[in-house]
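Record filed below.
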Amino acid sequence: MDCNRRTRTFLIALLILFSGCISYSFTGTSIPSDVQNIYIPFFPDQSQSGLGNLSDRLNRALLERFVNQSRLSLANDQETSDAFVEGAIQSYVNRPFSIGGDQQANLNEVSISVRATFQFASDEEPLWTSTFTGSATYDVLENPVDGELEAAETALQQIANNMFNDAVSNW
């Protein structure tokens, strides 16, 4: 009985310790005072993925991060913005990830790469230019079409998070 009590206490302590790590937001980031807004144009899809809405999905994810998780407002164009992020979806790969007993893929992995630049309008050089990659798997036997779309969405969310984190970590 004493061992069970110690185990429970240990697990509760771990849960409390790590509960602060589960969700983190940059809402309180130290954005330079002269940066009030950001311009986020659509990223052209150069991946030839066949999915028609990757640009829309990435744009929504970026807006969610930069506008809803910071004090920045959205600028209508680059000329009136204090900062901007731009780029293109470079690649989209959907390949087998796990093979089942019948030698057929039971899990596929969607991997997306985006080349992006973040720059303050007042600077001549970008703060960064990087390639961001996101990936996720889905069960091809359960629901291949919706599974691929959900995996693509997860990959784009990862990319948007990484772009946002790279931008605000330099402020």
